[in-house]
Amino acid sequence: MSFAPAPKRSWTTRSREIAVGALPPEKLLPDSQPTYVASWIYVFGVASIAALMVIIGSGAILSLKGPAWWHFTGVGHFFNSIHLWSVELFFFFVVIHLWGKYWMAAWRGGRSRVWITGAITFLVAVPAALTGYVSQQNFDAQWIATQAKDGLNSVGVGAFFNVTNFGQMYSYHVLLLPVAVVALVAAHVLLVRKHGVVPPFELDKKVAVAVSTSQAAPPATGVQGESP
Amino acid sequence: MTRLSWWPRERETAEWSGGYAPYDLVKELFIAVGVVALLSVLLTVLFSSPDDRPSTVAQWSRGQPVDFIAAAAKELAGTSNTATYGPPYNHNSDGQHAAFLYPQKWLGVSHPINTANDFVIAPLRTVPDNPTLQSAIAQFEAAPEKTKMAWAEAFAKPLEQYEAALEENKAPGKDVSVDPTTGAVTVKASRTGPVPIMMSGLLDLAKSGGLDGSLLTSRQFFQTDYTKPLLFMSDGGLLAQRAEAQHLLGDQWGMMNETGSYPGQTWLWLYTVWYQVEPFKTSENADILVMLVMGVLSLAFICIPFIPGVRSLPRRIPIYRLIWREHYREHQAEA
What is the ipTM of this complex? Predict the structure, then answer.
């Protein structure tokens, strides 16, 4: 079997070259990490993704049976509770992850987009959760909707994002906002893989001089001329 | 390596030339999903989740007929919170503003609500076989606007005084009485025109559950928009009473809480905190002021890598030494 050579300017070829150039497979799924990646704080990034997966899984089960299911059956309420607690865990992990990354100044060395996508993910996750709360069809949904409307109306958002409209909020909650969160998380993770995990701050000059004099150790951080 | 041409060039980190250790990312993800799923199940088994039944207009009218009638009279007079809200519901005010910013007014009326017609008159029109009621509606509609308002306000005044007295734990006046068996409300007030007949009809409709349906009805069979019943109910006291009992009012850190002792939306604490302090706490434009502050803070949060001072704090406060303590210990030892 023989294949005709692809045209040089093929969109497909170029897309593949760009993708592989930016993220070769060994960078996308590395089987080793720099030795400085050794702290419990690193767990919270993957824990956030894991919580997001549990949220999507439990949410998908709730979607299969429809909005009334979780109010009137034990199984439905059980999955609704899992959905709630995975959301609580998601925000807990994300907040710790964000604080950890802040104190690491994880935007250093060309990683500003990593920080920005992470921060926007958090900000988009907030309305994703809010639309869930107002879609519950219980008293919490009634109260939160009537309260949230004032803030949103005051800046004009209420004109096209009506928290008292269950149909609209449910659509946002089960499709539009989750897609946005997943897309942002995907971009965030790909950027992390592209740039690598941010290295530690350079050691004190005294130590660094000693290191370079002894010629015994590798460069302290690998960060050149960083200035957060 | 490709890069976005419009993105400001950043100094890239040099390739790490130190040691590497084996790391199984995929295995880590699978373990994390398992642990988080188990944790979610454990929390579910231990704490379940809140699910307080929603309030209905029928419950409200049966349990608090005076409050219901008082709210309905204000809807008819055009003096309720919803009636005077402004955009996106009506043009009866400009809504909130901050300095020269009037976004609520600029975006206009997208969910038009005429409280007198939508909450009172239109539902009453659906009541069959009641010529007295239909005649009262016709009389009301034929009257000049000024007269309509005067009738409705004259009817609402004793009801408001009755509610205020109850709120202050005083004995309510005798102008309002409630029949304990039927729940019928009698209001002694003059120059109220056909309003007492209309309010009595509305109370009966509400108690039967018919008003819940009427408020949801629009031009189509399937309904998902609860804007009208929610706004009508929030003009009364039922939702707020339930919310106060469940620590959900604005001065109780509001909607970041949820019913019961559950964590709620704790991530909204920075949004809610402004409502607890001046000048936001007492401002008529609190919502837009808080939203603007949060908008600026959110933008700053995204832009931390570019904000002088804020981006330098992590270097000055060496929490990083705790995070990378093994790395530094190793290199200190080598030094």
Answer: 0.91
